[in-house]
Amino acid sequence: MQALMPKPQIFVERTLALIKPDIVDKEEEVEDCILRSGFLILQKRKLQLSPEQCSNFYADQYGKVFFPNLTAYMSSGPLVAMVLARHCAVSHWKELLGPSNSIKARRTHPHSLRALYGTDELRNALHGSLSISTAEREIRFMFPEAILEPIPAGQRARDYLNLYIKPTLLAGLTAVCKEKPADPMIWLADWLIEHNPNKPKLQHHITEEKH
Questions:
Q1: What pTM, to 2 d.p., does this model score?
Q2: CB contact set of 95 (below 8 Å; sequence gap of 6+)
């Protein structure tokens, strides 16, 4: 009977982690802790958000008394965005972060990341998604090119090819014919990267190597 039973599945979740502007210089320390805690860093990007982009990211906090200070703080300098993956990633990352108020975290969760790196309730060093659905929205915001759904097949795949792939390839091949570069394969590869229809639209971004 047990031989016929399917093996239990482990569903790997993804969550968004942000290293906030005031502790960007601690990036390597934080990453080391993340990796030692069993997470994979699927994507990473260093970027600086405008106040408007911060307002959009924290739209669910709009109208609260701390909202202006929050957007000013989050847009005050570069931050590091990461997509983390592991079993129950959302809850494990929240546990590793500790309470959102760093002062409280130092009393109740002294070994948490916010207790170690945060200053107070506003400058709490790091961000984590609150739920799986929130994680999907936040990952899309920071990594617009990320594929969060199953890869399309059948008619959906044909629609995607017709809408995005074929027009982009046609434009690239036309550009190759006009330019006549010495190494057309490398030139076309660079052109496709530059003209990727899913290229992130965030301003002032500094792309770093993926882990």
A1: 0.66
A2: 112
Place of tokens 């009393």: 107
Indicate which CATH number applies to the domain containing 165. Answer: 1.20.890
Round to whole Å and give the CA distance between 165 and 157: 10
Q: pLDDT tens digits, the chain, 211 residues: what are they?
A: 445 555 544 557 899 999 999 999 999 999 999 999 999 999 999 999 999 999 999 998 888 999 999 999 999 999 999 999 999 999 999 999 999 999 999 999 999 999 999 999 999 999 999 999 899 999 999 998 776 655 566 777 787 788 878 888 999 999 999 999 999 899 998 898 888 776 655 444 444 544 4
Same domain, 41 and 123: yes
Three-state secondary structure string covering 13-32: EEEEEEECHHHHHHHHHHHH
Residues 117 and 181 in one domain: no
Which of 127, 195, 205, 211 is the catalytic position?
127
Give catalytic status of residue 87 as yes or no.
no
Closest CA to 210 of 41, 91, 35, 11: 41
Tell whether 122 and 158 lie within a shared domain: no
CB 2 within 8 A of CB 69: no
The reply to whether 132 falls in a domain is: yes
